[in-house]
Design a protein that fits this description.
Blueprint: E1 2-7, E2 12-20, E3 27-36, H1 40-43, H2 48-69, E4 79-85, H3 89-106, E5 109-114, H4 115-126, E6 134-139, E7 144-151, E8 154-160, H5 166-176, H6 183-192, H7 223-235, H8 239-269, E9 273-277, H9 284-296, E10 300-302, H10 306-309, H11 314-322, E11 344-346
Parallel strand pairs: 1-4, 4-5, 6-9, 8-11, 9-10
Antiparallel strand pairs: 1-2, 2-3, 6-7, 7-8
Helix pairs in contact: 2-3, 4-11, 5-6, 5-7, 5-8, 6-8, 7-8, 8-9
The structure holds 5'-O-[(R)-(carboxyoxy)(hydroxy)phosphoryl]adenosine and zinc ion.
Zinc ion binds next to α4.
Length: 347
């Protein structure tokens, strides 16, 4: 089937066509259009109303472009999939309203997709081996989840952040170091020039005494680390010269926590694959450290290309194909800023 995906949960206006079949892991990205909204850079963060307005202006042309890149017309579509949540409510409403109008006008079936579940599907579009059973680590600007995934649609929550998401911590540290928004790519670039021995920050919620079953064994926390960076900046005699070293110290701390907790999950769930998703999955240092550590545990890392790590609509279309049996007229579809992850149970 030809599935059109629409994603407007934050500051990327995205549409994509994925060709696949219900019940099959074989799926092909026929087009993938992502328009990142620049306007937020001026404000060093996403301004919700501006995001909604930019989606309203851009979504029509972005959908048209996704169809033309795939050499398809609206009539060739079998399914429309749209992010229904979680995300910025005004931004989501633009995508959901557009998708409902499209479904009504074309008579095509419409299905709502959970943004975070879609991040898990995104990796498999690049890497056919990224299929269950696996341990999933979703690290984005809004969420950080460690999951055991025995099968698509069946998710066991092992751990999550108790405060800031990992991407959010990168963004806050990036802004603190004067590196602009979004902070993730800028912090990674700066960290490459940094001396790992100059600043050693705490590894939050990580210590050798933790045992399986402990409440903090898999959970994450970022706010104490962020505070430690703030104190180090204040104490620095030359913050400008220390920027790269601070970025390196921060990134090393985050990576050690993520790698250790993921390796724990691999051991405790007996999985041999780890699927990384979300914008932070773009981080090369994280991917390299994770791949090396997993190799020692007999597991492989599956991470998407940068295009499919950050928000995109191909992952929405792919998740929509999985949920195609739930598709319908879409008249009752709503947008939700907070939305339960379908099929998620606490481990
Ligand atoms: O998944 P995503 O595009 O949007 C959300 O659903 O939140 O993730 C965006 C997040 C931002 O916080 C951004 O700073 C972070 O991903 N990010 C990175 C890198 N590239 C993007 N974090 C660390 N290193 C990167 N190279
Ligand atoms: Zn995302």
């Amino acid at each position: 089937m030809n599935a059109l995906g629409i994603e407007t949960s934050c500051d990327e206006t995205a549409a994509a066509v994925v060709v696949g079949a219900v019940g099959s892991d074989a799926a092909r990205v026929a087009s993938c259009v992502i328009l990142s909204q620049d306007v937020h850079q001026v404000y060093k963060g996403v301004v919700p109303e501006l995001a909604s307005r930019a989606h309203l202006t851009a979504l029509g042309p972005v959908v048209d472009r996704a169809l033309s890149d795939a050499h398809l017309d609206l009539e060739d579509l079998d399914l429309i999939a749209v992010t229904e949540g979680p995300g910025l409510i005004g931004a989501l409403l633009v995508g959901v309203s557009y998708a409902k109008g499209l479904a009504l006008g074309t008579g095509r079936a419409l299905v709502g997709v959970h943004h975070l579940e879609a991040h898990l599907f995104g990796t498999a579009l690049d890497d056919p081996a990224a299929v269950p059973p696996f341990v999933g680590l979703i690290v984005s600007g809004g969420h950080s989840l460690l999951l055991d995934v025995p099968a698509w649609g069946s998710y066991r929550l092992l751990g999550e952040t108790r405060d800031d998401a990992v991407g959010e911590a990168f963004d806050k540290v990036g802004s603190l170091l004067g590196l602009g928004y979004p902070g993730g790519p800028a912090v990674e670039k700066a960290a490459r020039e940094g001396d790992p021995a100059r600043f050693t920050f705490p590894r939050p919620m990580l210590n050798a005494r933790q045992r399986p079953g402990d409440a903090d064994y898999f959970d994450l926390s970022m706010s104490g680390l962020k505070t430690a960076v703030i104190h180090a900046v204040r104490a620095s005699k030359d913050p400008a010269a220390d920027t790269v070293h601070l970025a390196r110290g921060f990134q090393d701390a985050v990576i050690e926590v993520l790698v250790t907790k993921t390796a724990r999950a691999v051991e405790s769930c007996g999985r041999s694959r780890v699927v990384l998703g979300g914008g932070v999955a773009c981080n090369r240092a994280l991917r390299d450290a994770m791949a090396a550590a997993l190799q020692r545990h007999g597991a492989t890392l599956h991470a998407p290309s940068p295009r499919l790590s950050t928000d995109n609509a191909a992952m929405i279309a792919r998740a929509g194909i999985f949920h195609a049996s739930e598709a319908g007229s879409g008249r009752a579809l709503d947008a939700a800023a907070r939305l339960p992850f379908p099929g998620l149970v606490r481990a």
